[in-house]
Design a protein that fits this description.
GO molecular function, one term: NAD+ binding
Family: Belongs to the NAD(P)-dependent epimerase/dehydratase family. UDP-glucuronic acid decarboxylase subfamily.
Pathway: Nucleotide-sugar biosynthesis; UDP-alpha-D-xylose biosynthesis; UDP-alpha-D-xylose from UDP-alpha-D-glucuronate: step 1/1
Organism: Brevibacillus invocatus
Strand order of the largest sheet: 3-2-1-4-5-6-11
Number of strands: 13
CATH superfamily of one domain: NAD(P)-binding Rossmann-like Domain
Structural class: alpha/beta
Shape: globular
Keywords: Decarboxylase, Glycoprotein, Golgi apparatus, Lyase, Membrane, NAD, Signal-anchor, Transmembrane, Transmembrane helix
Length: 323
C-alpha cells in the first residue's frame, strides 16, 4: 500500500527535522503549517523534493477536513503548536485552538482514513510536579489560572480527545509527552533555555538565568527525539499509550549556563532574574515505558549535543556576517 504521511507544524523545530528524516527514508510527506511560529527557511532545502508537498493551512480551520490531498493519508504526526512560552503566551487563544480544535480535526481525519495518529503532547502536562521524576501515571500539578495554562491545559485536553477517539472509535492513537528538546534547529529568538544560552554566549551578551538557577531540566537532543517519535508511530505496542520521550539525565539550569559559557569560550556574564510564574522547579522523565515498548533510550549526552549546537549556531552567525 502507498504510504502517505502528514506532518502538522512541518515548518517548526520538530516538524522540519522529522520531515527531512522521513524524506531521507524515501517516504512521501505532506506538510501543513500556518507559519505562525514555523519558518519556511527550516524546510527550504527540501521544499522542491519530489516526495514533499507543502500546504499553508491552519489545522484549526474545519476546511482542513475537505482537502483532497489529505483524503488518503496513512499516518499523521500532529506536531502543530507554539511550544515556547514566549510564543504561546503571546498567542494564547491560537495555542488553545490548535491543541483542542486542531487536534480533534486531525483525529477525525485519522478516523476517516483509518490512519495512525501521533499526538505531540508535552512534559508541561505535569505542570510544576510534586512527584519526581515523572512517570506517565502521574496526573500532574497544573495551574489553570496562570500564563502557562493556555499551553499546559490545552495539551492535556488534547490528550483527552485522543483518549476518546481511541476508546470510542478505535483510532490508532499514540501520545508522546515530549520533554525539553534542543539542537541548532531551534530559532535563536525562541526564548528556550538552550537557544538563549548559546546565542547569548556566542554574542557576548549576558547569559540570563531565571531564579537561583537551581531548578532542573532534562535535555534531549533532537535526533533522539525524532527516532523515538518514529518508533512510536511504527510500533503497534504504542497504540493507546502515553509515553514519555526525553533524556533522564537531569541538570540544574545554572550548571547548563556555566557549561555553555565554558564551551563557547565566552566572556559573557551570568545574570539572575526573577523566576516566571508557574515555572517548574524540577523536570525529569521516567522512560521505562519507552525502553520496554519502543526499545528506545537517548544516545546523545548533553555535552555532545551542546557541542553540535554551538558549532552550528556559530556557523550560522558567520554566514549572516558574510552575507
Amino acid at each position: 500500500m502507498f504510504m502517505k504521511t502528514l506532518i502538522t507544524g512541518v515548518a517548526g523545530f520538530l516538524g522540519s527535522h522529522l520531515l527531512k528524516t522521513l524524506l531521507e527514508q524515501g517516504k512521501y510527506v505532506i506538510g501543513l503549517d500556518n507559519l505562525s511560529t514555523g519558518r519556511m527557511q527550516n524546510i527550504e532545502t527540501v521544499s522542491h523534493h519530489p516526495n514533499f508537498e507543502f500546504l499553508r493551512f491552519d489545522v484549526s480551520d474545519p476546511a482542513v477536513l475537505q482537502l483532497d490531498l489529505l483524503m488518503d493519508v496513512t499516518e499523521i504526526y500532529h506536531l502543530a503548536s507554539p511550544a515556547s512560552p514566549k510564543f504561546y503566551q503571546h498567542e494564547p487563544f491560537a495555542t488553545i485552538s490548535v491543541n483542542t480544535i486542531g487536534t480533534q480535526h486531525m483525529l477525525e481525519l485519522a478516523r476517516m482514513n483509518n490512519a495512525k495518529l501521533l499526538y505531540a503532547s508535552t512534559s508541561e502536562a505535569y505542570g510544576d510536579p510534586v512527584m519526581h521524576p515523572q512517570p506517565e501515571e502521574y496526573c500532574g500539578n497544573v495551574n489553570t489560572w496562570g500564563p502557562r495554562a493556555c499551553y499546559d491545559e490545552a495539551k492535556r485536553l488534547g490528550e483527552v480527545l485522543c483518549y476518546e477517539y481511541f476508546q470510542r472509535f478505535g483510532v490508532q492513537v499514540k501520545v508522546a509527552r515530549i520533554f525539553n528538546t534542543y539542537s541548532a534547529g531551534l530559532r535563536n529568538d525562541d526564548g528556550r533555555v538552550i537557544s538563549n544560552f548559546v546565542t547569548q554566549a556566542l554574542t557576548g551578551a549576558d547569559i540570563t538565568v531565571y531564579g537561583d538557577g537551581k531548578q532542573t531540566r532534562s535535555f534531549c537532543y533532537v535526533d533522539d527525539n525524532i527516532r523515538a517519535l518514529q518508533l512510536m508511530m511504527d510500533r503497534q505496542e504504542a497504540t493507546g499509550e502515553i509515553i514519555n520521550i526525553g533524556n533522564p539525565s537531569e541538570y540544574q539550569i545554572l550548571e547548563v549556563a556555566v557549561m555553555v559559557k565554558h564551551m563557547c569560550e565566552s566572556r559573557s556574564t551570568i545574570t539572575f532574574h526573577p523566576l516566571p510564574q508557574d515555572d517548574p522547579k524540577m523536570r525529569r522523565p521516567v522512560i521505562e515505558k519507552a525502553k520496554s515498548l519502543l526499545d528506545w533510550q537517548p544516545q546523545v549526552n548533553l555535552e555532545e549535543g551542546l557541542r553540535r549546537t554551538i558549532k552550528a549556531y556559530r556557523g550560522q552567525m558567520i554566514e549572516r556576517v558574510q552575507s
